[in-house]
UniProtKB/TrEMBL annotation:
Organism annotation: Pelomonas lactea
Domain of life: Bacteria
UniProt keyword annotation of Membrane present: no
UniProt keywords, alphabetically: Heme, Iron, Metal-binding, Signal, Transport
CDD domains, alphabetized: TrHb1_N
InterPro entries named among the record's database cross-references: Globin-like_sf, Globin/Proto, Hemoglobin_trunc
Protein name: Group 1 truncated hemoglobin
Gene3D superfamilies: Globins
Length: 124
């Protein structure tokens, strides 16, 4: 029997579980010296809500991210591969802190990783 389409969503504890990780993740992004400069003016509640919709959708949950496409959302930011990797590390810290099972952490990262093509736009 194949895994349910929303197995990853369930492993994350549904939308509330995803939101809890994002509420941990966004303040970490604003605190980590590698990512903080990008988020000085950010509305953290808005970002956590938008990320929740997006990760919920990526996990196969009943959500539809309605925000700007990733290329447009990041085009003025000069994001390098190193910046992207730093954000992934901070996300790993948040997932770990919220007790997301390791396999479910990696499955989510695998779904987000291809977005680097639309987000990394600088080699500085
Ligand atoms: C897979 C990786 C990433 C995902 C899924 C992601 C997702 C998002 C989403 C959903 C938004 C909200 C767009 C909106 O509603 O306007 C956003 C905004 C933003 N992202 Fe990313 N992002 C990623 C990587 C990065 C990286 C690597 C950086 C910089 C280190 C970054 C910096 C920002 C900033 C500064 C904003 C704007 C926040 C604001 O409204 O002030 N993102 N991102």
């Amino acid at each position: 029997q194949p895994p349910a389409a929303d197995a990853l969503y369930q492993a994350w504890g549904g939308k509330a579980g995803i939101r809890a990780v994002m509420d941990d993740f966004v303040p970490r992004l604003a605190a980590d010296p590698r990512t903080a400069p990008f988020f000085v003016k950010t509305d953290r509640q808005h970002l956590a809500a938008q990320l929740t919709e997006q990760l919920c959708q990526q996990a196969g949950g009943p959500c539809a991210y309605q925000g700007p496409p990733m290329k447009l959302a990041h085009e003025d930011l000069e994001i390098t591969r190193g910046d992207f990797n730093a954000l992934v590390e901070v996300l790993q810290q948040a997932m770990q802190a919220r007790g997301i099972p390791f396999a479910a952490q990696n499955a989510m990262l695998a779904r987000l990783a291809p977005m680097h093509r639309d987000i990394v736009n600088s080699s500085r």
